[in-house]
Amino acid sequence: MNVPSGTDRERLHPACVLHRRDYGDTSLLVEIWCPERGRLPAVAKGAKAGKGARAALLQPFRPLWVGLAGRGEVRTLTRVEAAGPVLLGMGKAVYAGFYLNELLLRLTPREDPQPRLFDHYLEALEGLAGGADMGACLRAFELRLLTALGYAPPLEHTADGRPVQPGGVYGYDPQRGPVPVPVDGFRIEGATLLALAAGRPLQGGQVRQARDLMRLILDTHLGGRPLRSRELLRRLLSLERKED
């Protein structure tokens, strides 16, 4: 992110917009995520008035510098500057970006600074924008998010402490980790678990196994409430397969 010069650097914070909605006739209520201040809501007063220059900046997937005022639960957005171009603009990668945003909105607590996770988020957006494998980008970020929140899933050892074997087939208990028998019909190869743990590329059926595993784990922390972005992404990918 390009750093403002001079005294501006002391007043502005790096940030991204995770979500926004109208607030009254002329303003916006935005959910801002700052690496050093965490996730917090802020009102952009008059952002919709005039030519809407600030409204154009306050879009998801654009790195920003923002000024914030106030001490209550909802802050006031005093200044907005672009810190770089929009990272995601169109195509299926945008749906994947909204999925990342929804995960952050649903799982991260308010005002919990996560500077490393913020960097991982920008890295994921840049990967999606650059045409990197979507599944790999999403799985990597999901694992980093869970780890940052203290929910790192066991992948290399079974629930009873034994090393996962590449040739083994396991079930998975979201509370305990890999188990030697399928749980509710879920099965995953040891090689997939070890590849995820090491950040290695997934091959063939491992892609689906890893996706289903992360969905199983995340759903435990989401309290059974479905992700709207996940369903939109699923429909888009299903439509693409039909067209092919």
Summarize, please:
This protein is of the alpha+beta class and 244 residues long.
Would you mind describing this structure in some detail?
A hairpin with a 5-residue loop joins strand 4 and strand 5 (75-82). Residues 6-10 have low confidence and may be disordered. The chain is built from 8 helices and 8 strands, in the order αβββαββαααβββααα. By secondary structure, it is α+β, with helices and mostly antiparallel strands. It folds into 2 domains: 8-82, Beta Barrel (OB fold (Dihydrolipoamide Acetyltransferase, E2P)); 92-243, Up-down Bundle (de novo design (two linked rop proteins)). The chain has a 5-stranded mixed barrel with strand order 1-2-3-5-4. The chain has a 3-stranded antiparallel beta sheet with strand order 7-6-8. Helix 4 runs antiparallel to helix 5 (134-148) and helix 5 runs parallel beside helix 7 (206-221). The longest helix has 16 residues, at 92-107.
- Secondary-structure element pattern, one letter each: HEEEHEEHHHEEEHHH
The total tally of domains equals: 2
**Contiguous runs where pLDDT drops below 50 for at least 5 residues:** 6-10
Assign the CATH superfamily of the largest domain. Recombination protein O, C-terminal domain
How many extended strands? 8
Q: What share of residues are in beta strands?
A: 15-25%
Shape: elongated
Largest sheet: 5 strands, mixed, barrel
Topology of this structure?
Layout: H1 8-11, E1 13-23, E2 27-34, E3 38-44, H2 53-57, E4 64-69, E5 75-82, H3 92-107, H4 115-129, H5 134-148, E6 169-173, E7 177-179, E8 188-189, H6 190-198, H7 206-221, H8 228-243
Parallel strand pairs: 3-5
Antiparallel strand pairs: 1-2, 1-4, 2-3, 4-5, 6-7, 6-8
Helix pairs in contact: 3-4, 3-5, 3-8, 4-5, 5-7, 6-7
